[in-house]
């Protein structure tokens, strides 16, 4: 539904990225805390719309309009997820995503963009974003993506309270509780949330052909959209970090017409 289709007497959740004449929404006055979200967008109307909606859904929400505001908010608050618009005036949102991933790998990153080119989304994922959503988009879809990224990030605490498992393969060690990957030389290899979730899905289904749709469901808890290359981008990044030659892979094999297969034998501790 577009904003122009919203009836004044019957406020509904509108798509994001279009002009709004929607009446103010009632804010949830309860004490539910589903996480702290930082919205980074140079359009204040968009920021206010997202903040109002997410607050009603039980989130704490802060706003920044540029890179300086982003840095200030992260320095003074514990942020669980950043919703980052790739187009921030003269600033490069892709570069901000890259810097954020390097400096704060524990923070989830969901990129928003009004750009139509698929390459922007692919580059965003390569820069370390966990997911993307093109504008205009429906706020309920934004909420679903936010919950999906946070579910993957916050599952760490639940895993730590359970049985600690380490997956070992070809000299590598993936700690499923601490989400740490150690190389054969015992060096820590930094993984984004999306990279870890995908690698965990692969090692837990070793020697099985997994379609892109299945991997997307296992690692991101959502269905693939048309021309969705999320898994291909993540596999490419994992191969690079695992030093797996993409032309002749020995760890993550491409199965033509099928998807991907994790080749090494995996031992769990």
Question: What does the model show?
Answer:
- There is one protein chain.
- This protein has 269 residues and is an alpha/beta fold.
- The protein folds into two domains: 3-157, 3-Layer(aba) Sandwich (Rossmann fold), CATH 3.40.50.2300; 163-268, Arc Repressor Mutant, subunit A.
- The chain contains eight helices and 17 strands.
- It has helices at residues 44-56, 67-76, 93-103, 118-126, 139-161, 193-203, 212-220, 230-241, and strands at 15-16, 36-40, 60-64, 81-85, 87-88, 91-92, 108-113, 131-134, 137-138, 166-169, 172-175, 180-182, 188-189, 209-210, 252-255, 259-262, 267-268.
- The strands form five sheets. The protein has a five-stranded parallel beta sheet, with helices on both faces. A five-stranded antiparallel beta sheet has the order 13-12-11-10-17, with helices on one face.
- Strand 7, helix 4 and strand 8 (131-134) form a beta-alpha-beta unit.
- Helix 6 crosses helix 7 (212-220) and helix 6 (193-203) packs across helix 8 (230-241).
- The radius of gyration is 20 Å and the shape is elongated.
- The N and C termini lie far apart (50 Å).
């Amino acid at each position: 539904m577009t904003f122009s289709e919203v009836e004044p007497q019957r406020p509904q959740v509108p798509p994001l990225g279009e002009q709004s004449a929607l009446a103010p929404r009632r804010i949830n006055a309860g004490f539910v805390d589903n996480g702290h979200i930082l919205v980074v967008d140079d359009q204040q109307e968009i920021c206010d719309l997202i903040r109002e909606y997410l607050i009603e859904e039980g989130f704490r929400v802060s706003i920044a309009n540029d890179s300086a505001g982003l840095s200030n908010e992260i320095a003074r608050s514990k942020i669980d997820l950043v919703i980052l618009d790739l187009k921030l005036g003269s600033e490069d949102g892709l570069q901000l995503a890259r810097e954020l991933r390097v400096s704060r790998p524990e923070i989830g990153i969901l990129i928003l963009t009004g750009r139509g080119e698929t390459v922007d989304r692919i580059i965003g994922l390569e820069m370390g974003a966990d997911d993307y959503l093109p504008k205009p988009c429906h706020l309920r879809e934004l909420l679903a993506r936010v919950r999906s990224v946070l579910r993957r990030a916050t599952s760490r605490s639940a895993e730590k309270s359970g049985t600690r498992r380490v997956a070992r393969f070809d000299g590598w060690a993936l700690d499923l509780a601490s989400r740490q990957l150690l190389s054969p030389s015992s060096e820590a290899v930094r993984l984004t949330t999306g990279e870890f979730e995908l690698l965990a899905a692969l090692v837990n289904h070793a020697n099985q052909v997994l379609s892109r749709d299945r991997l997307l469901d296992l690692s991101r808890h959502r269905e693939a959209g048309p021309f969705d290359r999320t898994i291909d981008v993540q596999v490419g990044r994992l191969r690079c970090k695992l030093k797996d030659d993409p032309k002749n892979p020995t760890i993550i094999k491409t199965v033509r017409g099928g998807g991907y297969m994790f080749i090494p034998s995996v031992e769990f501790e």
